[in-house]
Amino acid sequence: MPHTALAAVMHTPGKPLELQTITLADPGPGEALVRTMSTGICGTDVFFADGRYPYPAPTVLGHEAAGIVEALGPGTDDVHVGDRVIVCDQSFCGRCANCLSGQMVYCTDPGPKQRQRRRMHIDGHPARQYLGVSSFAERMLVDTANLIPLPAEMSFDAGALLSCCVTTGTAAVFNVARPEPGTSIAVIGCGGVGLAAVQAARIAGAAQIIAIDPQPHRRALAATLGATDVIDSNTTDPVAAATELSHGGVHRSIEAVGTIATATQAFRMLRSTGHATILGMLPADADLPLPAGLLRHGRSITGTVMGSVRTRHDIPRYAALATSGTLRTDDLVTTHHSLTDINDALDEARHHRGARAVITF
Length: 361
Prior knowledge:
6-stranded parallel β-sheet
């Protein structure tokens, strides 16, 4: 029996989303119908809404979510109706070489993308589901592999952020950058992802954490979450300032903006043998210019999806850090909106007002 939901539909990139009723299929094997409780506005959603990255339309955007399981497909025994869950956009098969080597975010199984094509109907016509989630809607039909238990003591807002931005920034530090205690790290971009990276650097024992952002409210929030220094990238050259503050360059840098300029800055501010981790979604057709002379001294740069997170292994650990108060999640939520205000929420994220806007249901 199909299920209906009110959703914010993208018919044309660059145009406002439209509220209308969509139809979701009944859950099949390995699938769950989840009632959306909270969904964050990620920069990735803005990029797709604006047409920076093409995607089949119409569709329903949104991928950073938490909710309650309403129905399950046959043969599902690791999730139960009524469970509070974090809904991640990373599905995995557990059988391919990447999954078996712990790199589940690079799973090569084509099954998830195939399932995205049959789950959702808009205006009576089949529509491609967005990133396997489509959370700008009252309900989501997702793979059960995407679900992680949400502890009872955590809010749905926190669960939504753990599904993407908090996990991405935290995993980038713990899994990719891996700063040693006492070292220095710079974080370029202090939205939800960057603020999570600042906190992870603090937890990892970095002695110097330099937060770089043009927005004063984001720099102020970064300082409360663990940054030892802040740089206004509107008025100061970030590379020169970070190099001076760290007495010759930082050991690690995290880029969480998604521009060629900031990715290049992340590399240029490294000291010899330093490592830059690029989290922002760079334009797919662009080249990244790197100064060849700096490569000769052991500097390196890596791109990653969600910090190479191992969802069912890592996210419960991050949730434990959050419930203990070590990792602050709810503090990143600066505004709440209803689904009817989705375009205002997207505009807020587009212009970097606040840190994270959340849609609550």
